[in-house]
């Protein structure tokens, strides 16, 4: 059956998850009307990290648009007219969105199809044959138990009849011998018949009991198997997705489907437990020598273990606390008991306590060793009663914690349940955030499911690390444009101090935790992670739209930039992240060498940082520099950046003109038309015939601080009232 047909049958949280996949980036109507075509394309054969695959993606985009247009043309009638307009609009919208980045369309559709398939698979598994088999087996043992109970009740009646006959025989001793001889043979015959029946029936009852116990054993075996699938496979996978979501991976998905499975398990387990207890009651009511007592004890022990494992394993953290946690700050998290509704735990709501524990305490906790109730930190308001939500059947504790414990159970069983959050790094100052984030990233990415707390590999393959940092980068920058293969080669060169441009040379290389965030990079005073985190922060805060537009090459070194630009016309520029400064981006451009006629060279501005962009945006700075003409390879800069330019300032008011900071590189300053006045304002500050040494860094780059001095000087001039120009009174 087609995935889309099954996806439309989803309900509840699964349906909401499916609907959230769609939006302006890919309308759900396109998925609906082109479902057969979409599912028939080979999306998976396209390597998203290989730019050479872009032509395949472009063909798919063109085909998608053509299919939409064809579908629109075949619409008739009043409703068809509206649909025709809508589908035509979607065709134009998708072309506009993905024409310059068709690989992003492939990425989008692959994600949609993968998620839909997972949701359908999870929903289908919820009514798997195993649950139906368990239901039938439980119904069968229920019928057998009733039959046993009925037969035992009749046995007791006959046993009481034998006692009555024996009493009659005993009473014959008080009768005259003639009367006794007359009545005794009939009673003796009747007693013999009843006792023979009782002997046969006792054996039959014993067989019934043994057969019932054997059936319960088979049911419990299947229960264990199904519970293992749900707890050790599905729930562990959900927890793994939750862990990766902490690194920016896809959302882990809701718990409603998992809860429905766990509740079905809990209900079946509880029914079988009640049956076993009733069988035990029947045995106590009518003891018959044999192995049944031992069997029932084993069954009762097994079913208690099964329900204990279910309750303790389904006490989970639905919403994790922040993994980098600063002291003296508020935070929230939520725990959830997936079987609370079925076990009627809400009838006696349990208390939950949250504490911060150390690595050693966590290890002791998993071994069920006494942790002496010690805490490694204080959490205020860390006690609460779990809340039951009747509409959803969920039992949650929406408060703050790092490790949660709770007493759970009904009148018959009481369990002490505990669960651990993902590891949390507690910091006291913002300067520690970088190292803390690195620790969390490494742990989330490479920790094995079910590991000893805090045990994580010391080294991983480079491709594994690439997956982790690419996931983190896209999440932090909030972009579908991740790191390309060329970007990852650049990062490998930086990490390993190797110049090879062949990705295959790095596939079997490993990176240790120390290389990642302990040992400084060659000839630098920062680690690999510190540099990469600085790039993410800068992009997230100031460069996100330009990265999404593909305007920033970013991961290009100085020599690569020079090689790329020297084959282009003067005025061609590119944007690359600084090699030498954390959180910096520089502009490299090709122009004439003013000191040597006829020679061209590549210039590099000193890197911009967050501090600079808090004064003036990247787009405005590029607009200011008139010698920058084409964004590499050949796009006019206004075509790329004009939509981000700050609108021109208004005319002066009350004799004052509002100051404006503009970026200027003196050696390249040229007349810049002022659209507001129609006059020309020159932003050069005494342009010379040669470059001043103070304007260059050691590599021949322009020093941004000195160029900004010019802008600050202009700003100061502009702050002064312009009496001669505006002729207004000064105040």
UniProtKB/TrEMBL annotation:
All residue ranges annotated as the SH2 domain in the record: 547-648
Q: InterPro entries of this UniProt entry?
A: p53-like_TF_DNA-bd_sf (IPR008967), SH2 (IPR000980), SH2_dom_sf (IPR036860), STAT (IPR001217), STAT5_CC (IPR046994), STAT_linker (IPR048988), STAT_N_sf (IPR036535), STAT_TF_alpha (IPR013800)
Q: Which SMART domains match?
A: SH2, STAT_int
Q: Which Gene Ontology terms cover its molecular function?
A: DNA binding; DNA-binding transcription factor activity
Q: Which UniProt keywords apply?
A: Activator, Cytoplasm, DNA-binding, Nucleus, Phosphoprotein, SH2 domain, Transcription, Transcription regulation
- The UniProt entry's coiled-coil ranges are none
Its BP terms in the Gene Ontology are: cell surface receptor signaling pathway
Localisation per UniProt entry: Cytoplasm; Nucleus
Gene3D superfamilies reported for this sequence: EF-hand, SH2 domain, STAT transcription factor, all-alpha domain, STAT transcription factor, DNA-binding domain, STAT transcription factor, N-terminal domain
- Would you tell me the Gene Ontology cellular component terms? cytosol; nucleus
> PROSITE patterns per the record?
SH2 (PS50001)
**Keyword hit for Transferase:** no
Q: From which domain of life does this come?
A: Eukaryota
Q: Does the keyword Protein biosynthesis apply?
A: no
Q: Which Pfam families does the record cross-reference, listed alphabetically?
A: SH2, STAT_alpha, STAT_bind, STAT_int, STAT_linker
Protein family membership: Belongs to the transcription factor STAT family.
What is this protein's name? Answer: Signal transducer and activator of transcription
Q: Which organism is it from?
A: Scophthalmus maximus
Give the classification, highest ranks: Eukaryota, Metazoa, Chordata, Craniata, Vertebrata
């Amino acid at each position: 059956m087609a995935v889309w047909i099954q996806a439309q049958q989803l309900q509840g949280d699964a349906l909401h998850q499916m609907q959230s996949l769609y939006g302006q980036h890919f309308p759900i109507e396109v998925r609906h009307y082109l479902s057969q075509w979409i599912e028939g394309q080979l999306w998976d054969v396209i390597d998203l990290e290989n730019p050479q695959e872009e032509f395949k993606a472009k063909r798919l985009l063109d085909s998608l648009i053509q299919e939409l247009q064809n579908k629109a043309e075949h619409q008739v009638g009043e409703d068809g007219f509206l649909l025709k307009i809508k589908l035509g609009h979607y065709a134009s919208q998708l072309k506009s969105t993905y024409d310059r980045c068709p690989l992003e369309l492939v990425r989008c559709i692959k994600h949609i199809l993968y998620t839909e398939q997972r949701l359908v698979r999870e929903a289908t598994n919820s009514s798997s044959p195993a649950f139906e088999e368990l239901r039938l087996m439980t119904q069968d043992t229920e019928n057998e138990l009733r039959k046993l109970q009925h037969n035992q009740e009749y046995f007791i009646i006959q046993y009481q009849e034998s006692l009555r006959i024996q009493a009659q025989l005993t009473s014959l001793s008080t009768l005259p011998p003639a009367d006794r001889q007359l009545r005794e043979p009939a009673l003796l015959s009747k007693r013999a018949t009843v006792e023979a029946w009782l002997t046969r029936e006792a054996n039959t009852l014993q067989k019934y009991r043994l057969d019932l116990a054997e059936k319960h054993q088979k049911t419990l075996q299947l229960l264990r198997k199904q519970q293992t699938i749900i707890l050790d496979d599905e729930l562990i996978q959900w927890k793994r997705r939750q862990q990766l979501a902490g690194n920016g991976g896809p959302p882990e998905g809701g718990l409603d489907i998992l809860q429905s499975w766990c509740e079905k398990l809990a209900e079946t387990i509880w029914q079988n437990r009640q049956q076993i207890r009733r069988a035990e009651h029947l045995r106590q009511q009518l003891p018959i020598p044999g192995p049944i007592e031992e069997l029932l004890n084993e069954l009762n022990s097994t079913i208690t273990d099964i329900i204990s494992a279910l309750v303790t394993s389904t006490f989970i953290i639905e919403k994790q606390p922040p993994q980098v946690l600063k002291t003296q700050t508020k935070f929230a998290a939520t725990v959830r008991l997936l079987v609370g509704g079925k076990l009627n735990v809400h009838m006696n709501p349990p208390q939950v306590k949250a504490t911060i524990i150390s690595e050693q305490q966590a290890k002791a906790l998993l071994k069920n060793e006494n942790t002496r109730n010690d805490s490694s930190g204080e959490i205020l308001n860390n006690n609460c009663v779990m809340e039951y939500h009747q509409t959803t059947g969920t039992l949650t504790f929406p408060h703050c914690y790092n490790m949660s414990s709770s007493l759970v159970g009904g009148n018959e069983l009481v369990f002490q349940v505990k669960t651990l959050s993902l590891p949390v790094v507690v910091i006291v100052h913002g300067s520690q955030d970088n190292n803390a984030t690195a620790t969390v990233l490494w742990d989330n990415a490479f920790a094995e499911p079910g590991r000893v707390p805090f045990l994580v590999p010391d080294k991983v393959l480079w491709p594994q690390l690439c997956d982790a940092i690419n996931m983190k980068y896209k999440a932090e920058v909030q972009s579908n444009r991740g790191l390309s293969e060329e970007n990852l080669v650049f990062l490998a060169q930086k990490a390993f101090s190797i110049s090879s441009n062949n990705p295959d040379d790095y596939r079997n290389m490993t990176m240790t935790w120390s290389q990642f965030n302990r040992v400084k990079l060659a000839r630098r005073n920062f680690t690999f992670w510190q540099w990469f985190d600085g790039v993410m922060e800068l992009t997230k805060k100031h460069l996100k739209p330009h990265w999404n537009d593909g305007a920033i090459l970013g991961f290009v070194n100085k020599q690569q930039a020079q090689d790329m630009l020297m084959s282009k016309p003067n005025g061609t520029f590119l944007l690359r992240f600084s090699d030498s400064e954390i959180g910096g981006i520089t502009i490299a451009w090709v122009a004439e060498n003013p000191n040597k006629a006829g020679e061209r060279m590549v210039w590099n501005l000193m890197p911009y940082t967050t501090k600079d962009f808090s004064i003036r945006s990247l787009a405005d700075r590029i607009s200011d520099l008139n010698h920058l003409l084409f964004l590499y390879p050949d796009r006019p800069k206004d075509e790329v950046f004009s939509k981000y330019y700050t609108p021109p300032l208004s005319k002066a008011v009350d004799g004052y003109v509002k100051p404006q900071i503009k970026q200027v590189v003196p050696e390249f300053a040229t007349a810049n038309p002022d659209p507001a006045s129609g006059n020309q304002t020159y932003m050069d500050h005494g342009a010379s015939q040669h470059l001043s040494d103070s304007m260059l860094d050691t590599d021949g780059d322009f020093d941004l601080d000195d160029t900004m001095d010019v802008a600050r000087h202009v700003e100061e001039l502009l702050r002064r009232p312009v009496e001669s120009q505006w002729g207004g009174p000064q105040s």
